[in-house]
């Protein structure tokens, strides 16, 4: 074993490794003539880095997707606007309940608050029941809807003092509206966190987002308290402040979701990608698709993407077999015995739309394939009468190449984000003991 003598001139370098692509030397520790340390970072820079680490994920910016920063900036601004308006609406709500009034009773205020919370709890359960399975596939849209419903809830609180006879009803409507916000916002946030996480660091991203939200909350509460104080008793100033902040809030939310470049496949993104591929043989990037897809609910926007026809609106996944009429049931038997003997799905053309009947043993890959096949059939609807022949021929020639190019462009092709396929089927062809699987 060799010994290190006192005359040895050894050096140890200290590097900052929080970002693997931006390594930086921070200090040199030298042994000769005596142990000494030379630092390259100032104390203020070191403190700043430690403070920043409380608000951004470990390894930032390489541990998150490129759209993380612009989304968080706009998301923080909309959160700030929300907390400022919350002070105004809460002040109006407490005034309507009777806080500060000698004639108000504790039991009366408690009962009104109880009804408010109860309606919110029931609304959250109902919203989850009807829309829970759609939140993953349309995360952008439901993110906007959640904040729109939150705005509506705060508006109800603000107008409640104006209608004393209908106060409880308006109070419950506002709580019901905000309950939708809680469910949709929480669920879509989970989906977006998974999207941002490049290094399996979803928990870290979620924790740091909590720190960011806390700062926005404290700033919003401080500004909101000041605004509530200076506008107290001035109805016109209160309404002007509230409506101005609401407009900015919705604009910030729209900009936030527009920043997102999701690389998962849902109905609309699959439709846009497929149509471009069928025309050019190339696959669009996630950032390009994000500029084409809808982020507003269909009942708020009457326009469609200019370059593409929304084929996904003509496709119905997981159709219930017993809901088909006699003609389409006979067509189902015909398809099961011809085109789809070995497939894990059956496509039916019905009044210009395509129904997908999924096999009971179908996998997520089969669901994606069936959906792309249905989109191809919908695309041939206006220019061919042999829909099954031409769509099957296209799938045999191009589907594998389409999937390969999707993966090379960074798209996730493991599954299709859609509602849960509850209804499935099994078909037998020929003798009763012959199953098609």
Automatic annotation (TrEMBL):
**A GO-annotated cellular component:** membrane
The keyword Lipoprotein appears for this protein: no
Where does this one sit in the cell?
A: Membrane
Q: Which InterPro entries match?
A: RUS_fam (IPR006968), UVB_sens_C (IPR055412), UVB_sens_RUS_dom (IPR054549)
Q: Which residue intervals define the domain Root UVB sensitive protein C-terminal in the entry?
A: 314-384
Which ranges does the record mark as transmembrane? 152-173, 235-254
Query: Would the keyword Membrane turn up in this protein's UniProt record?
Result: yes
Keywords per UniProt: Membrane, Transmembrane, Transmembrane helix
Q: Where is the Protein root UVB sensitive/RUS domain?
A: 47-280
Q: Extract the Pfam families matched here.
A: UVB_sens_C, UVB_sens_prot
Family statement drawn from the similarity comment of this UniProt entry: Belongs to the RUS1 family.
Q: What is this protein called?
A: Protein root UVB sensitive 3
What is the originating organism of this protein? Saponaria officinalis (Common soapwort)
């Amino acid at each position: 074993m060799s010994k290190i003598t006192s005359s040895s001139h050894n050096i140890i370098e200290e590097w900052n490794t929080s970002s693997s692509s931006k390594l930086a030397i921070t200090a040199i520790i030298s042994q000769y003539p005596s142990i000494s340390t030379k630092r390259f970072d100032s104390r203020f820079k070191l403190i700043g880095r430690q403070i920043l680490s409380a608000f951004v994920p470990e390894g930032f910016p390489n541990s998150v997707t490129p759209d993380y920063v612009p989304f968080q900036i706009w998301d923080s601004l909309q959160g700030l606007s929300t907390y400022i308006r919350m002070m105004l609406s809460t002040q109006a709500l407490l005034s309507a309940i009777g806080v500060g009034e000698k004639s108000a009773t504790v039991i009366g205020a408690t009962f009104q608050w109880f009804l408010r919370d109860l309606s919110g709890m029931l609304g959250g359960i109902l919203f989850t029941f009807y829309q829970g399975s759609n939140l993953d596939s349309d995360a952008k849209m439901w993110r906007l809807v959640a904040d729109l419903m939150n705005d509506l809830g705060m508006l109800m609180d603000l107008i409640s003092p104006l209608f004393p006879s209908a106060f409880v009803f308006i109070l419950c409507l506002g709580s019901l509206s905000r309950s939708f916000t809680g469910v949709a916002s929480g669920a879509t946030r989970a989906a977006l966190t998974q999207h941002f996480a490049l290094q399996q660091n979803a928990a870290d991203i979620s924790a740091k987002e909590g720190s960011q939200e806390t700062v926005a909350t404290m700033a919003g509460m401080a500004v909101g308290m000041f605004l509530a104080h200076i506008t107290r008793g001035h109805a016109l100033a209160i309404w002007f402040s509230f409506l101005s902040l609401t407009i900015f809030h919705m604009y910030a939310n729209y900009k936030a979701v527009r920043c997102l470049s999701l690389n998962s496949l849902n109905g609309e993104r699959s439709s846009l990608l497929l149509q471009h591929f069928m025309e050019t043989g190339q696959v669009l990037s996630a950032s390009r698709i994000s500029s084409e897809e809808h982020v507003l609910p269909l009942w708020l926007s009457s326009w469609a993407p200019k370059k593409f026809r929304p084929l996904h609106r003509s496709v119905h996944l997981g159709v219930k077999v017993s809901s088909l009429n006699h003609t389409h049931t006979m067509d189902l038997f015909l398809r099961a015995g011809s085109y789809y003997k070995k497939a894990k799905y059956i496509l039916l053309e019905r009044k210009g739309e395509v129904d997908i009947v999924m096999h009971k043993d179908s996998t997520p890959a089969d669901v994606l394939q069936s959906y792309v096949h249905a989109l191809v059939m919908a695309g041939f609807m206006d220019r061919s009468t042999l829909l099954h022949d031409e769509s099957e021929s296209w799938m045999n020639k191009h589907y594998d190449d389409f999937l390969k190019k999707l993966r090379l462009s960074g798209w996730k092709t493991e599954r299709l984000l859609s509602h849960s396929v509850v209804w499935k089927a099994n078909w037998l062809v020929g003798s009763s003991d012959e199953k098609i699987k």
